[in-house]
Structures are given as structure tokens and as C-alpha cells.
Amino acid sequence: MIRLIGLDYGSVTTGVAVSDPLLLTAQGLETIRRTHETKLRKTLQRIEAIITEYSVTGIVLGYPLNLDGSVGARAEKSAEFAETLKRRTGLPVILWDERLTTVSAHRYLDEAGLDHEDKAKVVDTVAAGIILQSYLDYLGNNPGEKEQFEKHE
Predict the structure, then answer these.
(1) pTM of this prediction?
(2) Contact criterion met (CB below 8 Å) for 6 and 16
């Protein structure tokens, strides 16, 4: 069984979503918060715990490219985080274009009628769900891509 998590990695928060076992839908799970951008120990420990709890076989990490498609400082940090995740978990990590994901998450939460404070609590989780759902939709059209996760079942 293949199961993926999606991560929206930010400077002090990481939104987490998990796929269903059929790789059809993404569900927002939680937002991991940290006190400083470089303090990743607890964030990594929590991600590893989620991987174990849900029998995760792969990670989809949001890759925040600039609007013109170029790689900026935030995308470079995400690529570094991807390498850390690969080393720590041994799982494949897919960098997935997340341009405008947070904007979409805010729009969705505005439509749901959440106030600013409530939105701040869940926006990263919702963004992680959007990132993962986008990748799951891609997998649905490219089933051969699932093979990279099968050896980690």
C-alpha cells in the first residue's frame, strides 16, 4: 500500500496532509510550529512520527518557485529540507511546484467564513492538502510514477 504525505514547509511552520491509501484524496492533518527557522529537530521528529503512524512511503514537499518559474531563496531552503528528509527517512521526496498554493488556501478559508485568527491556525495545513491533492491528481494521470514509492511499502 502506498501512502504519501504532503508538506507545506515555511520559515516557522510546516503544514502536513496525508493521502488516503488509494491515492485519490488528500486530507489536511496538522501544522507543526517551531520557534525559529533553523530549529528543525522537533519538526523532523514529528514528521518521522507521522510517517510511522500512517505507514507513509513517500513525501511531496511544496517547492515555492517564483511566479516566473525561477528558483529563489525560499525554494532553495525547501530543496535543502528535501535533502534532509531523504537522509532522515530514506523515503523518496518529490519537490512539487506550489506557486499560489497559500493564496488558494486563503481564498478557500475566506469562503468558509473563517476570521483572521482561525485562518492563521489552519492555512498551512490547508496549503499542504492542496499541494498533495495536486500531486495525487498528477499521479492519477501518470500511474507509472507510483513505482518510485512501491519499494518503500
Answers:
(1) 0.89
(2) yes
